[in-house]
């Protein structure tokens, strides 16, 4: 494989465009909304007038993380940090830019799958990550600091804008994590699964990571960066991540010095230190993977792949599979997969589309759409032949299931989730259940007869519950089926009972709840990320 190279002018221009684009995006919030501003000790929060409670929660979370981050990086941002609270985007994310001033964008939508789904309350995880970025990018010393005092916040005098992406995302991911408490991504189940996969194929070289090419995994900057800072702290001292950042914070933008960056902290140049890091990482991964690999994988035969992503999969009556397939190059496709493993594209769908297959073969699709110019909202579609018929518009229905003649869905409203019921055509929306503050609804599945809906929810960060509701009641009261202290997701009603993806022993696998007893159905050496539920013939399709 040819080595990827990039020159500093190209890197500098790319970095500049990244932060200018982020700043432009920050101004794209709905201008017709009634925006208000409130200040706390260290932050200025901008929010919709009707979302004062959410703004106060963001401010409290931001103030909680302020001392933790500023003490760790030995730097306090100059003046208040601006925070914009977004309810327009149905994605768990956020952004930070130092241009034209320190600004964080906070998306209220909590995660419902993937690497961000852990025992951390969403706002706490997001705020510590984004505020670490804000402090890191604001940190400056030496000549650049003098030039900033003269010329202002000019891009060339913001040294850490020009740092490789893995050093920026790595420290933010490292700071968000508390492995012992199951919080954050460092040593979390998805990152550990990726590391086991990376160990098997060979770790990424430093030059390739610096170039940030198309090498998988997509989250490689977060993954390698977080474990590098953990290595620095564990091998050289708890203060060494900050010392590494301190050195880089004195660089002039057009003359970045990564190679010598860790010398003051470790006495070694970056290439030597990176080789030491990868050797240590291999040892750590092998040790933690030993109990998992002591048992052979139980996953069945591979039908399809590898692919860039397979966000969702379902079992069709008759034995075929329905899957959302993304090859990383063309459009994402909803495809039918027969016994020969060959996908037959049906129609184009948007990224992260979710599917629900009813007992009669009816297919419901929830996918994000651009709404009213300023929104990215999940809406519902029904598959009819080889095309999708839109059922809702700007409804923020992130997950849905077919319950007889009705549709039951999880709706987002300014970061809060609630259980709603609609008719078969997506109209007549009624609220079935509104959780208390601090509870998030993650996933749902309907019983084969359509009378009941089961829901995975999380309370106060680490109290995971599987509950059941009656669909035909005007307001639903949850019945507790299962309670755990670790994440659950990917809920399906299989042939023999409720099946879901649950974390146990550091790995996500498929489990079945039948008659009050739990049974594990898979044993992955990496991670199960989606599953179709056991089909009528007893087969189980998974994405790993």
Q: N- to C-terminal separation?
A: 26 Å
- Strand order within the widest beta sheet: 1-2-3-5-4
Residue share in helix:
25-40%
> How many strands appear in the DSSP assignment?
27
Shape: globular
How much strand? 25-35%
Kindly provide the radius of gyration, computed on alpha-carbon positions and rounded to a whole number of angstroms: 24 Å
Mean of residue pLDDT values: 91
Category by helix and strand content? alpha+beta
Regarding quaternary structure, what we see is single chain
Determine the number of helices (DSSP H or I, runs of at least 4 residues).
11
The major sheet is characterized as: 5 strands, mixed
Low-confidence segments: 1-27
Please, could you describe this protein's structure?
This protein is of the alpha+beta class and 544 residues long. The chain has 11 helices and 27 strands. It has helices at residues 8-26, 52-73, 122-138, 142-151, 165-176, 189-201, 206-211, 220-236, 240-248, 263-266, 270-293, and strands spanning 35-39, 43-48, 81-86, 94-97, 103-107, 309-315, 321-326, 333-337, 343-348, 354-357, 363-371, 375-384, 387-390, 397-403, 406-413, 416-423, 430-433, 439-446, 452-459, 463-470, 479-484, 488-494, 497-504, 507-514, 517-520, 530-531, 542-543. Helix 6 crosses helix 11. The two termini are 26 Å apart. Mean pLDDT is 91; it is low at 1-27.
